[in-house]
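Predict the 3D structure for this chain.
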Amino acid sequence: MTIEQNLNTSTLPYLFSPVSADANQPAPLVLFLHGARDRGTDLNVLLKWGLPRFVNESNSLPYFFVAPQLPEGQTWIDREADVIALLDNLIVSQSIDPARVILSGFSLGTAGAWHIAASHPGRFAGLVAVSGRAPKTLEPSQLAALKEIPIQIFQGAKDEKLSVEDTQQIVDTLREVGGTVDFTALPEGDHFIADEVYSDLKLQQWFVSQSRRQAFVVA
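Done. Predicted structure below.
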């Protein structure tokens, strides 16, 4: 599958992949936020590993895929409004099911994914956090809002950038407020586990099996 590159945008440049050609009804979208070292002006760096590489090397997938790119020195929290604007534009222009949008991030992208999902909980059917922590700026009420969003968290047990204990604390907090959280610690994994995580068949199936909770569905 060839991923399209879109540079002519007033918000953020992005990679985009359509759903497989045989899809005849609205399909899910996976929105991916990259890590710090992939910031810049060359979209090709996103294709070197993780979810963008998996999508690019797959023959066909049952979901749309988009991966915007940050300029150097910026964070996803800085560009929250642009990420939501990109999502809105794609929902209008593509056959995307707005009730089946999955948000995923790696490292710096995970912090952005936590923040954006907590700020717009009614927009997402699932959150996948890989090798990253929730921002300390998240208020308890924002964490509580995430209880309606199924969450998958992946971390390497040998990750030197963050501890399993810190991640477990977030997991426990979310579960205390009624959240649905699955936490997977890879025993031999370091910080850079994205290839292993995103190529896993169970996660790929999870992407397309989630649908926004009825309480959040807007008529």
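Confidence is low (pLDDT under 50) at residues 215-219.
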